[in-house]
Queue: 4 jobs
Job 1
Amino acid sequence: MTNHPDLAVAAAPTPVAAPGRGWAVAGVLAGAAGFVGLVLESGLAMFDREEVYADAALMYAETYDRGLIIAVFLPLMVFAGLAAAVFGAGLRRWLAAQSPAGSLLPELAGWGTLLVTALTLVGSGPVTEVYFQVLHTYNPADPDIAMSLQRLLDTLPWVWTGLLLTTGAVTWAALRHGAAPRWLGWVSAVFTLLMVAVNVFPQQYLTGYLGGIWLVIAGTAFALRRSA
């Protein structure tokens, strides 16, 4: 009995494309953009003279010459936030495929990056208002209002503490389930402890730097992985 050719074609297995690495590259770019953005923004928060910190008018006068920093900070942080979300989506998919069924680790890893995205986008939002007020684009600005908005830039975008969920999830997934490179698990454990420490002391702003560095390391690890 001869097999029907259509049945033979229908029975042929459909090739399954291997997961890409773009999400991992997004993690590298998110970490780099976030780190550079926060370094630039630190130039807005620091003043040469101590008395400036107690006088909004003096702060306003010094900030006037830093319009370029304000303008560059916004696109960097928006890009970092969106790229972190892409990395989180890819990481969630990866951990879901490698971890035991029903594990919370993929969800925790994804939610951690989403928290970073939220704080980054919301925290960098006042840039637009500060930029236009500092440059007198419309009307002379009230220094008290302008510098109050700037203080939001000096705080909210730095709060990457939500990434603790991600680093903790990767630590457990790598060391307990082998769902990620073991060395990355130990590195993630160190970063998790460091971020806990800076939030206890408190030096919460440092989580932005730590989170940016971890994203670069983790993104590179997954981007250069040998197998999908």
Job 2
Amino acid sequence: MSWLLIWVLLVARLHQAVSLNSSTAPVIPESTTPEPYNRTQYCKWPCTCPETPPSCPPGVSLIMDGCECCRACAKQVGEICNEADNCDHHRGLYCDYSSDKPRYEKGVCAYLLSTRCVYNGIIYRTGQSFQPNCKYQCLCVNGAIGCVPLCTYEPPRVWCPTPLRVKIPGQCCEQWICEEPKRGRKAAPRHAMAALSSGKNSWQQDCMTQTTSWSPCSKTCGRGVSLRITNANKQCRMVKERRLCNIRPCEVDITKHIKPGKKCLNIYREDQERNFTISGCTSKKLYRPKYCGVCTDERCCIPYKSKTVQVEFQCPDGDMITWQVMWINACFCNLSCKNPNDIFADLDQYYENREIMN
């Protein structure tokens, strides 16, 4: 066979192979790698925060953002959230990214399923405050309900022989009254009548008067001042009232008036009537006030029965001024010696039997 024939056969077979390969499409394996995309960068460092934090609407929490940079107003239910804008966790909200697949960059604030409270057939959101009745204020916190009482019941002191808590018409909270069987009262005791009348002492029909107790005197001896808050006025506005108080004189040694064999003197009273004076002004009337005494042991004497009287003062320039003055009727010596400026003084006003017996 000649070389020319061999060359012709090789060329023919090559053309046949090319034609067969061109009739069949090449198979390319499918890629399993997801399409790349640019993820949004919500947090930027270093942090740049405003000088003053934002002012959030009522009920919206001011929290740290998701970048741990600045304080921001928390997003509420239905609002867009992301890695920087957090949902209000105080209200039991979380960022739901389920509708942003596969990126999971933006979400919507939604409630956790277990953060709602049910009371009396009503559903409350976590963080929602509600008042089931006039005596309690409640708050829903992560499925649990916590309540605080709106009524403050102050039981009578231990020297009250027959305490009784009564319902006052027109008022939500009951009040304690003290019956006084020793005086043989057949009608309602004066404490009950005072409680009934106090509920009607409103200048306007839509104003319920509220008055706090007088604070302890600012001084343990000499003239001081005690305060209270009240809205018993024509405008029904909360105002601060002041009254003068004098628990005992500083210039008198009361221990010299304690009887032999005794360790305490409950009440000290001056022999002569005198005028009250304040800032150069003199009271128009003469007074003989009572003061609390002292003890030579560890006990101290404090007022437990007193009232407030109006005293008119005549000033040198002819002006007349009126001051409320604490008038002591009775004092009680006990072991609970308190600082007159102690903010917890009202919490320690009931005494033990052994202190009364002594």
Job 3
Amino acid sequence: MSDHYVRGEMDISTQENTWHGFMKVTQWASFILIITLGYAVFTITMGMHWMVALGLMAVLGIAGGLFMGMGSAWIVTVIGLAVFAVILQLIIMFASAVL
């Protein structure tokens, strides 16, 4: 059986695509985690205004995504997360004003 094996002849395109997909998901998740932790550090520990920290992290996320070649989907994701954060913060502000 082992005499039929020839190194380098097996089609590994499926394994390569799986690996590249895993690395892309890891890259995206890691970068989102870095942006989230950076926002938390700036707002909670340093006392920076939430809107300034959000803008800073959005700019950092977009610039980092462009530097790492993550494509336009990454930019749309960062902008969408920033808009979601503003809406969430407005809901928190309105709820705290009512209570």
Job 4
Amino acid sequence: MAGVYPMIFRQCAGKRRYLSYVLGDPVTREAVIIDPSVGVLASAMSFLADRGMSLRYVLLTHLPEHELETILQKLRATGPRIVAHESTEYQGVDLRLRDNDVVYFGEETVRVLHTPGQMPCAVTYWWGDRLFTGETLLATGPGVCQQGGNIAQQWRSINDKLLTFPDEYLVFPGRESRKRRVACIAEFRSTLQRKSIRSGTPFQKAKLQDPPDPAGSDGNPTHTTSCSLVGA
């Protein structure tokens, strides 16, 4: 259809089954990378260069591993800004975000959902019908808690925030799990209900209403009273 541009999206697999993501605005040619890992950054940058795109932000879902910090600093020196939750202990961050903040890259937006538990600073990035959950929720279940993590809090984040999305929403995790790299909300809801039946413990079903639209009809994010607009 004339005038309609397909979104630019790439899932990249790295060492130790880590997964990174490239999101791009086809109109302005601006892009972001979510959780770049060692071994995929070069291919991700090549992917952007081949399409004439510029990297504006690096979005972190949790505290980066030590071996990644040097790479992030080199990347930061070339222009992109490093983004993470305000509670992160990583000192190489340019923008510290809160729950419900919105990040702009070109005409695209990503909303930040603070989903603590796996780590206190863990976040999920919401783009269209896709949730980039980092280590909070893998394709086969919750990730392992690390560095101040709390499993009970992690389950609350999954149930109270992630499971409020419609069944068809896709979950793109930060690491491959049992050879799976993507799942949908319906799978997790069904799995939790089955476990509840087996254990005899009532499953606290999350509210299933549609989540707020990340952008209003005029292209501006809704519910902005308590959130910041980054890159607007």
